[in-house]
Amino acid sequence: MNAPGKMVKVNDTYMHIFSISPSTTAMHHPIVFLSGSGTECPTYDFKPLWHLLKDRFHIVVVERPGYGWSGQTSHPRDIDTILAETREALKQADIAGPFIPAAHSLSGLEAIYWAQKYPDEVYAILGLDMAVPQVYRIMEIPKYFPLLARFGHLLRRPLAAAMVKNHPAVKNNLLDKTEREAMEVITSRQLLSKNMMDEIDYVKENAVKVENGKCPQVPLLCFLSNDKANMKAVPAWGRIHREYFSANDNAHFIDLTCGHYVHREAPDIIAESIIQFL
Q1: I need a labelling partner for 249 at 20 to 30 A (CA). Which of 139, 156, 240, 277 fits?
Q2: According to the model, what pLDDT value does residue 25 have?
Q3: Residues 6+ apart with CB under 8 A from 153
Q4: CATH number for the domain including 264?
Q5: What is the pTM of this model?
Q6: Which backbone phi and psi does 40 adopt, to 5 degrees?
Q7: Distance of alpha carbon 278 from alpha carbon 269, whole angstroms
Q8: The domain containing residue 226 runs over which residues?
Q9: Which helix (H) or strand (E) holds 242?
Q10: Cα angle vertex 23, ends 18, 29, to 5°?
Q11: Which of 2, 53, 7 is closest to 32 using CA atoms?
């Protein structure tokens, strides 16, 4: 099964970089989509949003090890390793910055850390209901999560079929038959992968490291959902984000009435807002 993008060697594995080259009228700075935890097929998961932006911007989706068409890695899932892999994968794919990370959920930590550590490489940040480090002071990982993962592995094929069938990219006919079949295979293969589980083990440690750095000063557009699960786990979800970025004079927030996967549920609003912002 051929990957839709480029496979590049990073450390002990291969990473998949999906890229739509910009037209002559497109903005030069690439929008780099970074998926949240457990998003098995990021390239197609983000399509409801990126297909609305591809004529104006250079679109890139980075699939971390254990996600999408990427392989598994034996390297630890600390934030420095994850960011180094992203930067090396972009380099190997001949994609130059400055970049505009578009971070969903957990990958908000990576986007913030990127701007902290290499500010010249980050032109702006787009937060797709992204996480900020303080969230993980409050959010607890369920003790039954490892058991849930094992159960999920046993039912990966029927779960993958149901997940893909109900995905907005499929329901809205954004994928052809070959792409739908590929998404189902990839979802089944990567469902609760080892690297995904390892990321969860490192998340508290990674959040502390990012929190110890300064608030990024790059332009920020942050979309915030009223997702019931997030609000239950972190009741002050929106307030925490606004407080964290209060030291950034160029931070903008848009509240959405939808679930956590904002790029699936409100792509039209988000796309238009990104176009105006950038």
Answers
A1: 139
A2: 62
A3: 191, 192
A4: 3.40.50.1820
A5: 0.95
A6: -65, -35
A7: 14
A8: 6-140+203-277
A9: helix 237-244
A10: 65
A11: 53
Domain-embedded: residue 169: no
Residue 209, domain member (yes or no): yes
CB 147 within 8 A of CB 206: no
Contact criterion met (CB below 8 Å) for 32 and 102: yes
Residue 193 neighbours by CB distance under 10 Å: 20
Are 153 and 126 in contact by the 8 Å Cβ rule? The answer is: no
pLDDT at position 139 is 82
Question: Is there a contact between 125 and 215 (Cβ–Cβ < 8 Å)?
Answer: no
Predicted local confidence at residue 23, as pLDDT = 67
Terminal C-alpha separation, the chain: 36
Place of tokens 């990966």: 156
CA distance 107 to 117: 15
Give the total number of structural domains in the chain.
Answer: 1
pLDDT in tens, 75-92: 999 999 999 999 999 999
pLDDT at 231: 86
- Positions of the chain with pLDDT lower than 70, given as ranges: 22-27, 141-155
